[in-house]
Design brief:
The complex is a heterodimer. In chain A, a hairpin with a 2-residue loop joins strand 1 and strand 2. Chain A is mainly alpha-helical. In chain A, helix 4 packs antiparallel against helix 5, helix 4 packs across helix 8 and helix 5 runs antiparallel to helix 7. Chain A has one domain. Chain B is built from 7 helices and no strands. The longest helix of chain B has 26 residues. The radius of gyration of chain B is 16 Å and the shape is globular. The N and C termini of chain B lie far apart (43 Å). The chains are: A mainly alpha, B mainly alpha. At the A-B interface, helix 1, helix 3 and helix 8 of A face helix 6 and helix 7 of B.
């Protein structure tokens, strides 16, 4: 279930990057903005007890259990990507950041599940997962060159920390601060 | 100026411009927000939570405005109402979206969504904000609600 969820997570990220380069930043922002609003309408209907078969299927197959509300994971992901697109003007920086969130975070979960060595400051995360996060994130070299190394390292540290904030929110904020400071 | 702001700004309707200018006034806008909160929620604790979300979102917005200086689309157009402070993000949109998200589990959510969309539309009509400012406000409002909700549940329960 979790592996399937992460593969979907990675695919959505890669699709967003392709969309970004095909249609540009503004159309991507408009599309994500509309998607979030439609998503909130769907979440509202689910809250009110309406059964939407396609959405129910999606949630049962791709959503984590014990989330704040139905569709929470997807809402966080879309919010994080929208945040990146709005705060960063360079589409290469946006693409590299989405790759870190999608591929890095996705691989960290898939590999981390099979890991054996816990991180000193967070027993719930594995060193193998963090290594996979860092290596996966390095593919962002295609977009921003050597700058990906510090970006991936900082993101890896934030992802492995025991903070009670969704990775899809904490990672975009970290990457926005990183790119704005750089 | 992006294409969406350009289209909204090109709408030549005096009534719409007048309404937009009314909402542009902070005192009237805050009054509208308070009325909208009181219309949708009667429980004092929930009212406090919604107001906390909006205040927190606006504080985040003000901090971002101080850090990221962007020019307003209306700058240089010699429009009397054009504010001089940075454009990014829209504080009006932040407050309206925070209010909308606070009603996510209610039947009235759709009305609050329409209210928020109308507010952001008036910002584009006046060209005081670009579409990116508005979109960023939606994302910031979601995060502000998420953080406030976490803190609220921790200290005051659900």
């Amino acid at each position: 279930m979790e592996t399937r969820r992460q593969i979907f997570h990675i695919l959505i990220g890669l699709t967003t990057i392709a969309f970004l380069f095909l249609f540009g930043r503004t159309i991507t922002i408009v599309s994500i903005f509309i998607t979030i609003l439609l998503g909130l309408l769907v979440i509202n209907q689910l809250y009110l007890g309406r059964k939407i078969h396609l959405i129910q299927w999606f949630i049962s197959n791709f959503e984590r259990k014990n989330v704040d509300f139905p569709g929470w994971g997807s809402a966080c992901y879309a919010t994080g990507v929208l945040l990146l697109c709005c705060f960063l003007a360079d589409i290469n920086e946006i693409a590299a950041s989405i790759l870190i969130i999608a591929l890095g975070d996705g691989l960290a979960t898939i590999i981390g599940k099979m890991g054996k060595i816990s991180i000193l400051y967070n027993k719930n995360k594995k060193i193998e997962g963090s290594a996979a996060f860092f290596i996966g994130s390095l593919t962002g070299y295609l977009f921003i060159g050597p700058l990906i190394i510090p970006a991936a390292a900082i993101s890896m540290i934030v992802e492995s920390m025991p903070i009670n904030i969704d990775d899809n929110i904490s990672l975009p904020i970290t990457l926005i601060i990183f790119f704005l400071v750089i | 100026m992006d294409i969406i702001t350009e289209v909204a700004f090109s709408i030549n309707n005096q009534l719409l411009t007048d309404i937009s200018l009314l909402i542009h006034n902070e005192i009237i806008f805050v009054g509208l927000l308070i009325a909208a909160v009181l219309l949708g929620e009667r429980r004092p604790k929930k009212i406090m939570k919604i107001i906390s979300v909006m205040v927190f979102a606006v504080i985040i917005g003000i901090i971002i405005k101080m850090l990221i200086i962007t020019e307003r689309p209306c700058a240089g157009m010699e429009l009397l109402y054009c504010p001089e402070d940075p454009s990014f993000p829209s504080l009006h949109a932040l407050a309206a979206f925070s209010l909308m998200i606070a009603f996510l589990n209610k039947k009235s959510f759709i009305l609050y969504m329409l209210f928020a969309l109308f507010i952001v539309f008036t910002r584009l009509v006046l060209a005081v904000h670009g579409f990116v400012d508005i979109a960023a406000s939606l994302a910031i409002a979601m995060i502000a609600y998420y953080i406030t909700d976490r803190i609220w549940v921790r200290y005051y329960g659900d």
